């Protein structure tokens, strides 16, 4: 089961807070993945098509519980994609128009509502129930082991912005983006995704995201440290090679025998350990020397080479 399916399934099992929450959830389900057909004389037919069992189960259960309407249920299997497709239809019947008004799909004059009616989301808990229903119907939550991303696919620009505003009322910033013939209400911030899922009741999914977030943070910290160590090793190796070249110049100029004891000891130590960093080289010196002390000896050697052979001047730190 994908992470999105897990989130949808968990949300579908959330209990309502008040007697109107189920109406808000059902309204969102019908609006996000439903299609309304209208015939003359006020005859309607509402169809909800989904590949998600949680949507089908919730839609049928709430329709029977709240609206007391007859439903038609069909299961189809795609040969190409090998997935099941559920079709729930509310055929034309005496109380269907009243139900569509109750769900905020039609207004009292029979006109299609473009946004989200206030009476459906008047209470705070109903607002969360509507968002929950939208996530169950058209939500996508990326696997938290990858990028953090949540979006709800809807039809109609006005409805998309209304849903984004509704999400904003619970303190989460959502954006709207056009996707061919539909619109995506999306969230990219991990903190906002966690807050929204926590608000709508997906506690198990929140825990899974937080765990993945910690693991990802540890991996990133380890990668940064490894990269830093590799970079340091590369710089140290390069510096050690340049110091070996400096010693070769000292030898070529005949300066080795006349070097002060400190510089001569450094040359012997570096030639014995050509791959060590200055810090590691100082630790094995007798007596031990600091990195700064060894660096100053390198500078003194450079000045001797510059004075003895100007044409060989080269920065070799």
UniProtKB/TrEMBL annotation:
Gene3D superfamilies, per database record: Homing endonucleases (3.10.28.10)
| Keywords from the named record | Cell cycle, Cell division, DNA-binding
Query: InterPro entries in the record, alphabetically?
Result: Homing_endonucl (IPR027434), Sporu_reg_WhiA_N_dom (IPR018478), Sporulation_regulator_WhiA (IPR003802), Sporulation_regulator_WhiA_C (IPR023054), WhiA_LAGLIDADG_dom (IPR039518)
Where does the Sporulation transcription regulator WhiA N-terminal domain lie? 21-101
SUPFAM superfamilies documented for this protein: Homing endonucleases (SSF55608)
Gene Ontology BP terms: cell division; regulation of sporulation
Q: Which GO terms describe its molecular function?
A: DNA binding
Domain (Sporulation regulator WhiA C-terminal) ranges: 222-304
Q: Which domain of life is it from?
A: Bacteria
Q: Which Pfam families match?
A: HTH_WhiA, LAGLIDADG_WhiA, WhiA_N
Keyword Cell division part of the UniProt annotation: yes
Where are its TM segments located? none
**Any idea where the WhiA LAGLIDADG-like domain is?**
129-219
According to its UniProt entry, the function of this protein is described as:
Involved in cell division and chromosome segregation.
Q: Which HAMAP family match?
A: HTH_type_WhiA
Xref: PANTHER family: CELL DIVISION PROTEIN WHIA-RELATED (PTHR37307)
Question: Which protein family is named in the record?
Answer: Belongs to the WhiA family.
Protein name (Swiss-Prot/TrEMBL): Probable cell division protein WhiA
């Amino acid at each position: 089961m994908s992470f999105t399916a897990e989130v949808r399934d968990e949300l579908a099992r959330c209990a309502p807070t008040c007697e109107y929450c189920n109406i808000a959830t059902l309204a969102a389900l019908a609006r996000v993945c439903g299609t309304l057909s209208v015939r003359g004389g006020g005859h309607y037919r509402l169809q909800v098509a989904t590949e998600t069992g949680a949507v089908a189960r919730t839609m049928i259960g709430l329709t029977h519980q709240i609206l007391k309407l007859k439903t038609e249920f069909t299961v189809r299997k795609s040969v190409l994609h090998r997935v099941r497709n559920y079709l729930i239809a509310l055929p034309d019947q005496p109380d269907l128009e009243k139900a569509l008004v109750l769900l905020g799909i039609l207004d009292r004059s029979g006109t299609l509502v473009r946004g989200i009616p206030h009476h459906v989301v008047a209470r705070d808990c109903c607002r969360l129930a509507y968002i929950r229903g939208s996530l169950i119907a058209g939500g996508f939550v990326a696997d938290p082991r990858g990028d953090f991303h949540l979006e709800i696919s809807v039809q109609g620009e006005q409805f998309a912005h209304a849903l984004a505003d509704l999400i904003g009322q619970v303190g989460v910033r959502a954006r709207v983006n056009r996707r061919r013939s539909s619109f995506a209400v999306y969230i990219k911030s991990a903190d906002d995704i966690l807050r929204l899922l926590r608000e709508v009741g997906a506690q198990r999914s929140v825990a899974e995201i937080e765990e993945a977030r910690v693991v990802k943070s540890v991996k990133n910290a380890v990668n940064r440290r490894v990269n830093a160590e590799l970079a340091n090793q590369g710089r140290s190796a390069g510096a050690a090679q340049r110091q070996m070249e400096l010693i070769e110049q000292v030898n070529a100029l005949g300066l080795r025998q006349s070097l002060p004891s400190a510089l001569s000891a450094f040359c012997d130590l570096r030639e014995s350990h050509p791959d060590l960093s200055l810090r590691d080289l100082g630790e094995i010196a007798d007596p031990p020397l600091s990195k700064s002390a060894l660096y100053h000896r390198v500078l003194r050697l450079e000045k001797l080479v510059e004075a003895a052979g100007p044409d060989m001047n080269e920065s070799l730190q």
